[in-house]
Every structure is written in structure tokens, then in C-alpha cells.
Design goal:
89 residues, alpha+beta, two-stranded antiparallel ribbon, flat
Length: 89
């Protein structure tokens, strides 16, 4: 990375820091719209992130962990070219 690129990255971080939310207290929703030059194929993209705290956050963490375990188990069973497994067409 050149020093010029490093300077650009630092400037971008400072720009984004000015847009950062303060410490989140309680449940909230953060929305972010991609800038025109960041959009894939010009499509509008918006991220909405819901933040939960306390018991609700713990419940969501447990649910997410369970879903990830299920997905990994499914992926393991459906690997293509797994040893001892016939590929079906």
C-alpha cells in the first residue's frame, strides 16, 4: 500500500467516524444506504441493522448459533465430491 493510499484510507475513516452513532442504548435500528459508486449495477442498496440488548439479544444469539450449526450440518451432508459419496445428476 502506498503512502497516498494510506492517507486516503485514513481520510475515509475520519469521514465515517463523523457519521458514527454514539453508544447505543437499548434496542435500535441503524440504516445505511450505499453511495451511487458503491452500488452493484446501479441498484439501490440499503442495509438495516436491528440492535437488541439484554434477554432479547441473548435469545437471538442462541437462535443464530442454532441456525449456523444447522447450515453447517446441511453443507457437510451436501458437499460435492465428498469421499465415499456418489454425485447425482
Amino acid at each position: 500500500m502506498s503512502s497516498e493510499q494510506a492517507g486516503e484510507g485514513r481520510g475515509k475513516a475520519e469521514e465515517q467516524a463523523g457519521q458514527s452513532a454514539q453508544a447505543v442504548k437499548g434496542p435500535s435500528i441503524i440504516s445505511y444506504n450505499l453511495r451511487r459508486e458503491e452500488r452493484p449495477g446501479g441498484m439501490k442498496v440499503r442495509y438495516k441493522i436491528k440492535i437488541e440488548t439484554g434477554r432479547k439479544a441473548r435469545e437471538l444469539d442462541e437462535r443464530q448459533a442454532e441456525v449456523i450449526r444447522d447450515l453447517l450440518a446441511w453443507a457437510r451432508q451436501h458437499r460435492r465430491g465428498a469421499p465415499g459419496r456418489k454425485e447425482t445428476a
